Structure formats: structure tokens, C-alpha cells
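Study this chain:
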Amino acid sequence: MILLGSTGSIGVNTLEIARRFNINVEVLVAGSNYELLNSQIREFKPKFVVVKDKEVAKRVNFKDVKFGEEAILEVIEKSRSELVVNALVGDVGLRPTLKALECNKRIALANKESLVNAGKFIDTSKITPIDSEHFGLWYLLEGKKKFKKLYITASGGALRDWEIEKIKKARLKDVLNHPNWSMGVKITIDSATMVNKLFELLEAKWLFDTKEVDAFIETKSIIHALIEWEDGSTTAHISKTDMKLPIAFAILKRVEGRILEPVNLLKVKSLEFREINKKRYPIWEIKELLLEKSDLGVVVNTANEFAIDLFLRGKIGFLDISKIILKAVKQFEDVKINGVEEIFEVKKEVKVWCESNFI
């Protein structure tokens, strides 16, 4: 396999599956964590290694380490592996997805931005989702086509139990204090704003070819997806929050043995479901608009990355992230994207607009 994002949590879990099932890892692509990468190189002995930049490359123990986006695209094309696991975070994951499709490779996808930005230009038949929510939907839908509505669940993020009036005072350390698990900085912030779930709804639209998709909060994060059927019944996918299950299915296609310990519902005792409140999560007001005008995914994604950068640098408050996104969506509401290269042109335009209005 080709593993993009080997030192992140998805990457580490992917290598655990590779280790367990004796899968050859031809390519390792990582960011800045050269110490972990060096240990991965020693164990898996890849043919190609790519890192973020030249400075990181100097610290990697590999004879011909490459760096930068073009190098990622180059090794995808050169490699013999038929499977690409794309666990890169952010826009850096988009072009590798497009390159993998161009090379007729199969993609195990954890990079949200690929579908958020370019869903209508991507052949989703080549993609198996790694996100637990989309995996849950895929698992429930296997062999079935007709459904009434798809649902994914949200944890609610770090501020889900805060009084709404106090949320505007939330600091970075508060936003990163997720109640259910430890994740990377960006995705934890996206969880708190609910941008993450907006992206997942848009991904579900492209993956399952439907606008009949919604989300709600399930506070214990053991139900990942539900399907409402035409007959009025609903089925749910329940499992421990462990990415090894969707990763195993994405890589192996078929899984016979046990990957996780099952959830003991007697120990869980009770479950709590909550509506996603627009006062707590202002970004949720554009949910229907985004599903209808999906080109706006590029605008939301670009404005979100811009706003998160300002928040991390202490330039804006937490609620300002959503405000910036909503203003950008209003400004670019009629955007139309007719080709892949236009995605990058629109991103530049949105970024320039954000910089001129919020810096």
C-alpha cells in the first residue's frame, strides 16, 4: 500500500493493520514527526519516503527521502501498489486523491477535503471511506440500495455542555479538551464548531448519491451511523470508537476475524441523543444550503482553514470561526465550479477576500 499521513492516528492504526495482516507498505508519507517516521521506516522498509519539507527531510533516516506535494504525486505515479490510504489532514490531501484516481488506484479515504472540495469530480466507486460515520453507513447499506434517510452522529465537541453564553469566552485549551477522545488540533476544533459534521454530510452526499442525510449528537460516540428505511424501521451501526475496524475493511475488502471487542450495552446502560442547536453551533444554519449548492464546500473549507489559523494565533475568538465562514458563504453564495483547476482558483479568491476583510 501507499500510506499518506503515516504518523497521524489514522496512519498509526493503518500500520497496525498492515503489521497484523502482513501487508507490504511501499510508500510512507509524513509531515514533521521524523522520530516516529524513522521507527516506521526501520520496521516496514518502504521503497519511497516523502515528508513535508527539506528541513524535516534532513532528519529522516532514509537514503533518498523526498519532500513536498509534487514528490507525493510523483511516488503515487511511480509505485506499484494498487491501494492508497489517504490520511492526510487538510487541502494537502486533495491532489494526491486526484492523482491516485488518475492512476486507477483504489483509495481508502480519510481526507475529508478531497470530497468536500472536489466531490462532483471524483469517481466514488474507487473509494472506500475510513471515517467511522461513513464506514457505518457503508456497512449498513451493503447489498441494499433503497433507503429513506441516512444519519450520522456527532460527539458535540469540547463545548457541548457549556452554557451558550459562556462559549464566546472559550480559549484554545478549552476547545481542544474533547470529552470522548484525543485527536489532532484542527479536527478537534472542527468538532467543536460542528464544521467537521458539515463536511461529513457533504461527503455522504457524494459517497451515497443522496441529499437525504442529516446528523445529531450521540454523547457516548458508540453509535456512528443510522439508516431509516422505507418500511419505517431504523438500523444503527454500533462499535467502539476505534479506527482499526474501518481501516481493516478498506484495506482488506473483506474481514473474517474479530478486529475490535464488541460494545457491552449493559455497561453503557444509557444513551443520550441531542439536536444540533444552531445557537450553540451557528455554522449549522447553512447545512441545507451546502447540500443543495455543494460547490460552497470549497468556500467553507477555505474560510475555515483561514479562521482556524487566526484562532490558533490568538487573533480571533472561538465563535469568530463560524462568523467568518458564514460571511464568506454569503459573499460567494453563487459560486460555480466547472472543473478541478477552478477549485484552486476559487480557493485563492476566497483566501484573498478573507485576508482583506479579517486581517
User: Anything to note?
Assistant: The chain is about 45% helix and 15% strand.
